[in-house]
Amino acid sequence: MAQNSRDMKRKLYLETFGCQMNVLDSELVLGQLRAHGYESTEDRDRADVILFNTCSVREHAEQKVWSRLGELRPHKQQRPELVIGVIGCMAERDGTDLFRRYPHVDLLCGPGELDKLTQLVHNAVITGADRTRQVALMGSNTRRSATLAAAEDNLELLDLSRSISSEDDIAQAYVRITRGCNKFCSYCVVPYTRGPEVHRPPGNIIEEVKRLAQAGVREVTLLGQTVNHYHYRDGDGRQTTFAQLLYDIHEAVTELPRLRFVTSFPRDFTNEALQAMRDCSRICRYLHAPAQHGSDRILKAMNRGYTAGQYYDFVDRARGMMSDISIASDFIVGFPGETEEDFELTMEMVRRCRFKNSFIFKYSPRPGTVAIDRFADDVADADKRSRNNRLLAVQQEVSESINRQMIDRTVQVLVEGESKLVSRQAAAVGKVELGWQRRADESSAGETQMVGRTAGDQIVVFPAPRSLKGQLVEVRIVGAKNLTLFGKLQEVAVSV
Ligand code: SF4
User: Which residues line ligand 1 (CB under 6 A)?
Assistant: First the structure.
């Protein structure tokens, strides 16, 4: 793509909503746009190009995007040359209907077409205020057509285009291993917006993890909507399973201290994959495996493909192999037809499975899903709210009891940065029950409250120098609340 000196100064504002997959997509497209002369800015008012990478899974994230687009209407009137684009799942789901509601939007790009985004942005920029709209969407059939292989190759090139530098100062990074989803849960739009599952070649994944580790990344998270369903068959018919991929990365990238993965689909968890976690010391013993509900009747309506009993079996197998494994879940309350008895079964699941934490959502019908057409949203909002709060209270009790068991243990923590929620009292050993304030306090010893995570994904706050950001350190746990552990720095762990 030809660039002129004017293009070199274009400022780009990119705001990301939703899951880790969107965070990674944003990182990749930002890298591509930077390589073509765009400069990112945090200041939306100074941007020449404004992009929203959107999510249609939760209503709340979607409302934020609509509100952002509404705010931009007067800006566009004042500066017609401003380029406004919607990318990601909302663009794919709503398609060109979005232009009817927001005629000041110039560009739409679905998550399966992001390799074309740089060209779309460039076309929009060079044609100025007289531009025609730029659109790249998969459509419902395209991905299943003969062009599928070429589309996959182009997306693979987008992943491979990632610029990795030891000057980037990043300790954690995402690496995609699987795109799309084949599960078709009735409340979810992802299989329609991201298309069917595609698994990346294992050689490309290992190479990417290696380059990241060599650039100083301390923790890589493998990403997939159903990450543990990974399987790849090469041209010679050789199969790589998810378990094999874990073993291969662990063996090939010995300089990486931590490897983790999200999000797991409970039904797909093989004993081999659990064994790989048990056998490989640098794979974090943490699983995010959303159960979504404790009632078989609701799980069936959700089209999750497993029963509560099968979920319990999966948890028992995991804990049988690794007694210290930390498991997190997601739950939807108020799904259509949910009775108080169904809800009690979800409460029971949280108590029995002892999740480290659960992300709890009130059901809201999402456009483009099977559930919105098939089921009436018949649980009263007051009931949804009450169930949400009751489930949260049970989860908090469980989380606090798990966290309290950590007191007096020494754990390895990857330091992420300064804590935003810091208590003056937390800095004093053990005194963690008192009030909170919003700013980090710096002690006379040059220490501040830093925050990091254990291999089991527990959040730890402890006083330490800022210079430890990105380092693995040993911390002794001295206090615990339901969401946070409090600790004392022991030493910097340098060995891998
Ligand atoms: S597994 Fe279900 S909830 Fe998860 S992305 Fe696929 S369809 Fe959506």
Answer: 181, 183-185, 188, 190-191, 225-226, 265
Together in a domain, 83 and 160: no
Domain tally for the chain?
3
| Residue 384, pLDDT above cutoff 90 | yes
Residue 22 φ/ψ, nearest 5 degrees? -70, -35
> Do 85 and 183 have their domain in common?
no
Q: Which tokens belong to 226?
A: 């159903």
Query: Is the same domain home to 397 and 264?
Result: yes
> 265 and 333 share a domain?
yes
Query: Which band of pLDDT confidence, cut at 50, 70 and 90, is reported for residue 147?
Result: low
Under the banding of pLDDT at 50, 70 and 90, the label for residue 420 is: confident
- Burial category of 177 from C-beta neighbours within 10 Å (exposed 0-12, middle 13-18, buried 19 and up): buried
In a domain, 197, yes or no: yes
Please answer whether residues 295 and 308 qualify as being in contact, where contact means their C-beta atoms are separated by less than 8 angstroms.
Answer: yes
Q: Give the number of the atom of ligand 1 that is nearest the alpha carbon of residue 181.
A: 6
Q: Looking at the domain assignment, is residue 131 inside a domain?
A: yes
Give the pTM. 0.89
The conformational region for residue 479 under phi > 0 = left, psi -120 to 50 = alpha, else beta, is: beta
Tokens 């060079």 correspond to what residue?
A: 126
Closest atom of ligand 1 to 303 CA is 2
154-212 pLDDT tens trace = 788 888 888 776 666 789 999 999 999 999 999 999 999 999 999 999 999 999 999 99
Domain range enclosing 439:
410-492
Tell me, yes or no, whether 222 and 255 share the same domain. yes
For 483, other C-beta atoms within 10 Å of its C-beta total 13
Structure tokens at 364: 């809201």
328/223 same-domain check: yes
pLDDT digits (tens, 9 = 90+) for 227-278: 999 999 998 899 999 999 999 999 999 999 999 999 999 999 999 999 999 9
Strands 472-480, 484-492: pairing is: antiparallel
Place of tokens 């399987």: 231
Same domain, 208 and 354: yes
Percent helix, strand, coil in the chain (nearest 5)? 40, 25, 35
- How high does pLDDT run on average in the chain? 89
- Residue whose CA is at the smallest distance from ligand 1 atom 4: 225
Which of residues 142, 169, 200 is at a domain's end?
142
